Amino acid sequence: MRRGMGGTLARSRVSVLLALCLLLTSCGTVKNAYNSLVGGDTGPKPGQPGYVAGFLGGVAADEPRAALVGRDILSAGGTAADAAVAMGFMLAVTLPSRAGLGGGGACIAYAPDRKSPNGGVPEAVMFTPLAPASPGANADRPAAVPMMVRGLFLLHARYGARPFETLIVPAEQLARFGLTVSRALAQDLALVSTPLLADPAAAAVFGRNGRALAEGDSLVQPDLAATLTQLRVAGVGDMYQGTLARRIADGSPLVGGPVSGDDLREALPRLQPPLFLTDRNDRVAFLPPPADGGLAAAAAFRTLQANGSDFAGAAAQGLAAAARWRAGGGATPEQILASSSLPPAGLPSLPASTSFAALDKDGNAVACAVTMDNLFGTGRILPGLGFLAAASPATVPPPLLAAGLAWNEHIHAFRAEAAGSGQAGAPMAVAVGLLNALRSGRAMSAPVPDPGRANVIVCDQYLPGDSNACHWATDPRLPGLALGGGG
Fold first, then answer.
1. Which pairs with CB-CB distance under 8 Å and at least 24 residues apart come from 242-251?
2. I need a labelling partner for 370 at 20 to 30 A (CA). Which of 7, 23, 247, 351 fits?
3. Can you tell me the distance from the alpha carbon of 355 to that of 455, in angstroms, rounded to the nearest whole number?
4. pLDDT, mean over the chain
């Protein structure tokens, strides 16, 4: 009887306190009040998908599982940078033809808060692949110095919130336990199957019974999983001046071209100011050289501002700007961009790349383009490490890595972002994708010109602002994925 009376009294206290909570704004949510009274919240904790209730942001990537892990990170309370880091590592597992621990890239990052690392202004995180100081006399396939891991770490150090090591885990698990080959990877494997399978280590991973893996086949990468585990446990520094660094230095001569311990120690990503343009009430930032696809995108964007239908003229101006930069001569990117008419110029056949973008609930945004400087890099896997060496930029022309981001500097809010791929078409993909988003308020309101492909996110009423006006899309001609929205 006394026990029943106690239960009645306890329920009465809960009812009274919940009623008070409804009247007191400082009391927090009714759910939190109830949980504190009856023994704690049983819902997802910080770091678990589902933790964020309501709008969580959006992601877009050329490969579906990368987008899915990005959305999970946002749902777990991560920032756009956290999502981008997890997507970068995931692409190293699911799309190693274009992204990998042996490669590199560049990102534009933005945080609207004036107290953010860059004071509410976008900045570029540059980790493009580097050539070794000495390629070696007998190097038949010179390799690049791996930059991806340090680049993602710098992005996280500036704009991340979740523990860095937790962002490696999804890629590590998928590499260890296996995945089915996506359409995106299968298409790339079909293009280079003969030279790729000539490397026994690559054939053991990407081949079966003398043929390249096809869409739906199982891909297991235990050596890559072990390397990711080592990065998670020992830290990023291990790859540049620890056990992993020694293994890279020892194994790189066996796959075509040496990368020394000094090369690894001195390979540092850096922060750079982007290239800036103005569009109506907004400012637009583009990746700067050496990611000169951003310069080309900015030149194309400026041409399209004057005439939105002049695709041919915009593409020509973009490629001419990149060619002018690569020719040297001392002109700054800003001087090249200010030139109203550049002489026509072409570029050689360019390597492949891939791109992805992320936006979180607070309006933090990241747009990235990454590369192996060739499909599957050198086509050779570093012994026992499970990842392909990227091709050295000393022997192949660098890709046009392109990304851009628009924001309003007066209200400190995100407006739109685009990241592109498609060899010589990457700059136009960013320029057209971004301008279309700014004019229409929709992501991918119209296709970007071939051969470019784009990932686009836009918030037409800005963010922070009206999240209902936020949209994301991947290029419909790609087998990628864009998703986000409510928690």
1. 244/385, 247/382, 247/384, 247/385, 248/146, 248/382, 248/385, 251/382, 251/383, 251/384, 251/385
2. 247
3. 7
4. 91
Number of Cβ atoms within 10 Å of the Cβ of 154:
21
On whether the CB atoms of residues 377 and 384 are closer than 8 A, the answer is no
**φ and ψ at 60, to 5 degrees?**
-150, 135
* Among 370, 283, 299, 324, residue whose Cα is nearest residue 85: 370
**Separation of alpha carbons 113 and 111, rounded Å:** 6
- The answer to which of 16-25, 51-60, 162-171 has the lowest mean pLDDT is 16-25
Residue 93: both structure tokens together: 């597992």
Q: State the virtual CA torsion across 265, 266, 267, 273 in degrees, nearest 10.
A: 140
- Mean local confidence (pLDDT), 25-45: 49
Burial class of residue 477 in the structure, from the number of CB atoms within 10 Å of its CB (0-12 exposed, 13-18 middle, 19+ buried): middle
Confidence grade of residue 487 (pLDDT, cut at 50, 70, 90): low
pLDDT at 30 over 80: no
pLDDT digits over 196-243, tens only? 999 999 999 999 999 999 999 999 999 999 999 999 999 999 999 999
- Rounded Cα gap, residues 320 and 322, in angstroms: 5
- In whole angstroms, give the CA distance from residue 464 to residue 116: 14
Instruction: Tell me, rounded to whole angstroms, the distance of Cα 77 from its chain centroid.
Output: 18
For residue 312, give the amino acid letter. Answer: A
3-class SS string, the chain: CHHHHHHHHHHHHHHHHHHHHHHCHHHCCHHHHHHHHHCCCCCCCCCCCCCCCCEEEEEEECCHHHHHHHHHHHHCCCCHHHHHHHHHHHHHHHCCCCCCCCCEEEEEEECCCCCCCCCCCCEEEEECCECCCCCCCCCCCCECECCHHHHHHHHHHHHCCCCHHHHCHHHHHHHHHCEECCHHHHHHHHHHHHHHHCCHHHHHHHEECCEECCCCCEECCHHHHHHHHHHHHHCCCHHHHCHHHHHHHHHHHHHCCCCCHHHHHHCCCEEECCEEEEECCEEEEECCCCCCHHHHHHHHHHHHHHCCCCHHHHHHHHHHHHHHHHCCCCCCHHHHHHCCCCCCCCCCCCCCCEEEEEEECCCCEEEEEEECCCCCCCCCECCCCCCECCECCCCCCCCCCEEEEEEECCCCEEEEEEEEECHHHHHHHHHHHHHHHHHHCCCCCCCCCCCCEEEEEEEEEEECCCHHHEEEEECCCCCCEEEEEEC
Cis peptide before 290 (omega within 30 of 0): yes
